[in-house]
């Protein structure tokens, strides 16, 4: 509880809409900070489409799976470091300055990636973006919660989650928009600098979190901000509750210490807190281990493996995944207070298990039941096929093995992984194998 007691009910979103109309300043605070969530979602989703064109343009990336994975994963590595540093910055310099610093990282990372001449520079830009993602992922919801009226705090914090999934959907849309523009992937990655710039200037005009100001003994500034958030007759009560909450927090720190390890040790030795800590960790780990990040990072690649080889088609079909992800966030926002967190989590986990099982089954079936490639099938080529084909592997070599061989025997400039395009070129156009 940041500022007063949190009373959650099914009317929170109705109250959110009503209060936002009465006090648009509240919505300005939430949306300005929430752009950090939008950037978080955009930068995690944009690489899925950009990677397709990076591979096309830079042969070194196309030939190295390790390099491809490094380009994708360095943002995650940067986010881990950014989240750790962000916690210290939030306490030391405040939430507002932390968001401003994250915007600088976002902007620098976007510019570096857009202008990158080599894969190494792309990776460097991804690290900068990752640092920004790590800081924004923890600072934006913290700022929103501390600068929101307690009656609608849950709804406004949920807004940050919606902007994350909305940012992912926006990333796929922008990827699709730039498929026919010169410098495709550079535009895709560079566009992220624009919302970072917008948020930077918006945050310059917004105040610091009232809770952080109160903790730094700047009570007059904290009260001035509360007057913009709450009606005049509620300000004194909220200021009193804020003071009690901060004093309680300071007292707890005096008992357990201010160090990270001291806090963890105290939390782990307290039964009630330990149960909550375990539940929170399990939920976070399960959320990551369900594989949604993998799907979001590689959705177009997965679609191409399913047989839709065109980059633009793969991106268009990937919009379905990101769109459903955003819709799921909207649904959860409306039902989280009516149905409860536990029930929604169980339902969503069941859905995740079912659909991941279906996805795995489809890929397994495609690899096991794909048509065989053997002596009989290669008679059309006078037994002359790609170097990766091993005649000793008759009845074991499958169509999927051909696609994974990456020898370019079955490829042409229009449809990179379709063996049907090869048949068309050879038999209908009478092209030599080297041009197919």
Automatic annotation (TrEMBL):
Residue spans crossing the bilayer: 29-54, 66-85, 97-115, 121-144, 156-178, 184-206, 276-299, 314-336, 343-365
Membrane topology recorded in Swiss-Prot or TrEMBL: Multi-pass membrane protein
Sorted UniProt keywords: Membrane, Transmembrane, Transmembrane helix, Transport
Annotated InterPro entries: MFS_dom, MFS_sugar_transport-like, MFS_trans_sf, Myo-inositol_Transporter, Sugar/inositol_transpt, Sugar_transporter_CS
Primary location group: membrane
Keyword Coiled coil: no
PROSITE patterns: MFS, SUGAR_TRANSPORT_2
Coiled coil: none
Keyword Transmembrane helix attached: yes
Domain of life (superkingdom): Eukaryota
Stretches assigned to the Major facilitator superfamily (MFS) profile domain: 29-436
Pfam families: Sugar_tr
Subcellular locations according to the entry: Membrane
NCBIfam families: SP (TIGR00879)
Homology family: Belongs to the major facilitator superfamily. Sugar transporter (TC 2.A.1.1) family.
Name this polypeptide is given: Inositol transporter 2
Organism: Platanthera guangdongensis
Lineage: Eukaryota, Viridiplantae, Streptophyta, Embryophyta, Tracheophyta
């Amino acid at each position: 509880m940041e500022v007063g007691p949190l009373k959650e009910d099914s009317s929170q979103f109705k109250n959110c809409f009503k209060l936002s109309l009465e006090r648009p300043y509240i919505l300005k605070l939430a949306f300005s900070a929430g752009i950090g969530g939008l950037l978080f979602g955009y930068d995690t989703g944009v690489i899925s489409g950009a990677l397709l064109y990076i591979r096309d343009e830079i042969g070194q990336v196309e030939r190295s799976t390790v390099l491809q994975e490094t380009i994708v994963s360095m943002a995650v590595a940067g986010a881990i470091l950014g989240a750790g540093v962000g916690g210290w910055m939030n306490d030391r310099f405040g939430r507002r300055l932390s968001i401003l610093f994250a915007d600088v990282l976002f902007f620098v990372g976007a510019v570096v990636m857009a202008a990158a001449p080599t894969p190494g520079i792309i990776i460097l830009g991804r690290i900068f973006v990752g640092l920004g993602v790590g800081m924004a992922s923890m600072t934006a919801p913290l700022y929103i919660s501390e600068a929101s009226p307690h009656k609608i705090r849950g709804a406004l914090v949920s807004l940050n989650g919606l902007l994350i999934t909305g940012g992912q959907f926006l990333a796929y849309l922008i990827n699709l928009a730039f498929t026919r523009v010169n410098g495709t992937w550079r535009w895709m990655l560079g566009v992220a600098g624009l919302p970072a710039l917008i948020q930077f200037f918006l945050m310059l005009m917004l105040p610091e979190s009232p809770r952080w100001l109160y903790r730094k003994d700047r009570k007059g500034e904290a009260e001035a901000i509360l007057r913009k958030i709450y009606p005049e007759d509620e300000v004194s009560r909220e200021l009193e509750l804020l003071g009690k909450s901060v004093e309680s927090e300071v007292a707890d720190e005096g008992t357990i210490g201010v160090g990270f390890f001291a806090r963890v040790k105290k939390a782990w030795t307290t039964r009630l807190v330990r149960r909550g800590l375990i539940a929170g960790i399990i939920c976070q780990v399960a959320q990551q281990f369900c594989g949604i990040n993998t799907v979001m990072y590689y959705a177009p690649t997965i679609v191409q493996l399913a047989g839709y080889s065109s980059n633009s088609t793969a991106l268009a079909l990937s919009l379905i995944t990101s769109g459903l992800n955003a819709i799921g966030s909207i649904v959860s926002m409306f039902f989280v207070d009516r149905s409860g967190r536990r029930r929604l989590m169980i339902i969503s986990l069941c859905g995740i298990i079912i659909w991941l099982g279906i996805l795995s089954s489809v890929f397994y079936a495609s690899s096991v039941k794909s048509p065989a490639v053997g002596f009989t099938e290669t008679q059309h080529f006078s037994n002359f096929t790609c170097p990766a084909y091993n005649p000793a592997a008759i009845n074991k070599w499958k169509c999927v093995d051909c696609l994974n061989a990456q020898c370019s025997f079955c490829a042409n400039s229009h449809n990179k992984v379709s063996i049907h395009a090869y048949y068309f070129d050879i038999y209908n156009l009478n092209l030599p194998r080297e041009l197919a």
